């Protein structure tokens, strides 16, 4: 077991009720959030995020990328 695997993952921020404003079906692997959202929630670029679809029950984890203000894609 590596040290990274031994460290617990603890959520430290929550952004509830965001709506996806864009998508790219040919690219899988990140979530672009507006810089204003990143600052308000306290997330850093490339930090791991969990995405939950409350309607369909789908969950996945990815990483956050900074984007223009108000963007969730």
TrEMBL record:
MF annotations from Gene Ontology: aspartate 1-decarboxylase activity
GO cellular component, one term: cytosol
Keyword line: Autocatalytic cleavage, Cytoplasm, Decarboxylase, Lyase, Pantothenate biosynthesis, Pyruvate, Schiff base, Zymogen
GO BP term, pick one: alanine biosynthetic process
A Pfam family of this chain: Asp_decarbox
UniProt-recorded name of the protein: Aspartate 1-decarboxylase
Protein biosynthesis in keyword set: no
Gene3D superfamilies: 2.40.40.20
Keyword Lyase: yes
């Amino acid at each position: 077991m590596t040290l990274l695997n031994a460290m617990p993952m603890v959520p430290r921020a929550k952004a509830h009720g965001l709506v996806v404003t864009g998508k790219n079906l040919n690219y899988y692997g990140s979530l672009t959030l507006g810089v204003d959202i990143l600052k308000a929630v306290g997330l850093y670029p490339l930090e791991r995020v969990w995405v939950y679809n409350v309607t369909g029950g789908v969950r996945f984890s990815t990483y956050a990328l900074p984007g223009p203000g108000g963007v969730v894609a």
